[in-house]
Design goal:
9-stranded mixed β-sheet; 5 helices; 227 residues; BirA Bifunctional Protein, domain 2
């Protein structure tokens, strides 16, 4: 099966619009798979979102620390969605990535897929001399996860898969306004912090440069061929 993937940069887009677009592509990939088409489209979407909190299927609404009315007054969208994981934040300055691919075309299962997503982020961070790490107890990419007082999350991951076709994905804090995380328990954690590439380096980072490097690592680690 082909590893050809259509790459799209959606730019700045509201979460609901991107979610609807994902669903459309996701349904098309599954339909092509069920029809056993030899050549089926797969997708890798990059974007930024306007301020939004999303709560996954296993999420606890109590991890949102402000009322819905406060979200509205601060112009923060709120969506309960069909990915795994708890609550997270997306917003300007964050690189959000949605792979909509058939894992069978890549000869991997869901556990390996999530591990590879983490590897892509870790490889991207390494280009900025930042050591991102995995944590067996918590999906995503962390800095200093072995030291509870210093552990901080730089990338959240939450996915959905049906018939081995994926959607949703990862969110890497690049130049994110981290104050928006103060209104939630990110991913359900109350004892760990969050960080960004910009905060770690003490300067603003070119988001397009991060996107370029991350796309390269998707090609290298997944073997994606872009069209």
């Amino acid at each position: 099966m082909s590893r050809k993937v259509i790459f799209e940069d959606l730019g700045r887009i509201r979460y609901r619009e991107a979610w609807d677009y994902q669903e459309k592509l996701f349904d098309a990939v599954i339909r092509d798979k069920l029809d056993k088409r030899e050549e089926k489209n797969q997708y890798l979407l990059f974007c930024e979102h306007e301020h939004v909190y999303t709560i996954g299927k296993s999420g606890n609404r109590q991890n949102l620390l402000i009322a819905r009315s406060v979200c509205e007054s601060k112009q923060i969208d709120l969506h309960e969605i069909d990915r795994g994981g708890d609550i997270t934040y997306h917003g300007p300055g964050q690189l959000v990535v949605y792979p909509i691919i058939d894992l069978e075309a890549f000869h991997i299962g869901i556990k390996k897929y999530i591990s590879l997503l983490e590897d892509v982020v870790i490889a991207t961070l390494r280009e900025y001399n930042i050591e991102g790490e995995k944590d067996e107890k918590a999906m995503g990419v962390w800095i200093d996860p072995a030291h509870p007082a210093k552990a901080r999350k730089i990338c959240a991951i939450g996915v959905r898969a049906s018939r081995f076709v994926t959607m949703h994905g990862l969110a890497l804090n690049v130049n994110s306004d981290l104050s928006y995380f103060n209104y939630i328990n990110p991913c359900g954690f109350t004892d760990r912090g969050v960080t960004s590439l910009g905060k770690e380096l003490g300067r603003e980072i070119d988001l397009s440069e991060v996107s370029f490097r991350m796309k390269h690592h998707f090609h290298h680690l997944f073997g994606m061929v872009f069209s």
